[in-house]
Write a structure and sequence with these properties.
Blueprint: H1 8-37, E1 51-52, H2 54-69, H3 79-96, E2 100-101, H4 106-136, H5 143-168, H6 173-178, E3 187-188, H7 190-193, H8 206-219, E4 226-227, H9 230-258
Length: about 260
């Protein structure tokens, strides 16, 4: 049979029906995307604000103390000036944002990055001095002191790289706390790949980055957290190289001394 011709009213009705279906599908897709990004609610455990400041401040203070406690041949001549500058920056950052890291501030972020650069340069200098003395045979014959010094430099290196990861992943702790971080993460944590074990709004804290740094420094490769951004891959590669050189040379020299 010949189909009946569509009237203007029937055609308009069908177009309205198709438009409603497309609009509903777009709305459902937007809701699913927002849920995956964690924009619908604060991150788990952050209902009252951002990440606590004190764990990071305590760890940074321990790094300053360990750098000061290194033997004279592994630290800068102006160690007191360096320590005073690091402590002053730490006090300033803590005073400007004492409780929770949730308020965007260019000044606080600049001071925090300056502190991190100072600690990194001091530890890089200690690593270079250690490697030079090991390669030239001027380290000495005290295996215990060598192992303790190498362990201190290695541990400070772990903390410093953890701070770098923490400061830059998905825009930093403030951006992660507000839920405005980019959809694609710089690091892929296990909670992101297995959503059934964590809240959809889960966010990593400093302890997660400290664990990432420690495992990368011991395994010399990613473990359960994968770097996705190129800067993250390069930084993890640099950390593994520094850790491998430090551990290999220190252990080799210590074994040689003990023999």
């Amino acid at each position: 049979p010949t189909p009946e011709p569509l009237t203007r009213e029937a055609l308009a009705g069908r177009l309205d029906h198709i438009e409603a279906l497309l609009s509903r599908g777009a709305h459902e897709l937007d809701e699913r995307t927002s849920t995956l990004r964690g924009d619908l609610a604060p991150a788990i455990g952050w209902a009252r604000g951002g990440e606590l400041r004190w764990p990071v401040s305590v760890v940074v203070l321990l790094v300053v103390v360990m750098q000061m406690a290194l033997p004279a041949q592994y630290r800068l001549e102006s160690r007191w000036l360096l320590a005073a500058g690091e402590v002053a920056l730490l006090v300033a950052v803590t005073a400007l944002n004492p409780h929770r890291i949730e308020r965007p501030s260019l000044l606080v972020r600049t001071l925090g990055l300056t502190l991190l650069v100072l600690m990194s340069l001091a530890n890089l200098d200690a690593v270079a001095r250690l490697v030079y003395r090991l390669l030239t045979g001027t380290e000495g014959s005290d295996a215990t002191a060598l192992l303790l010094t190498g362990a201190a430099i290695w541990l400070v290196n772990v903390v410093i790289f953890a701070l770098w990861y923490w400061e830059f992943d998905r825009g930093g702790p403030v951006t992660r706390a507000t839920g405005k971080d980019p959809y694609l993460p710089d690091f892929l944590f296990a909670q992101m790949t297995t959503p059934e074990v964590a809240s959809p709004t889960w966010r990593p804290t400093f302890l997660d980055y400290l664990y990432l740094s420690f495992t990368n420094a011991t395994a010399f490769s990613p473990t359960d957290t994968l770097p996705l951004a190129r800067w993250a891959k390069l930084l993890m590669m640099l950390q593994s190289a520094v850790s491998l050189v430090t551990v290999a040379l220190v252990i080799a020299r210590a074994v040689n001394v003990l023999k």
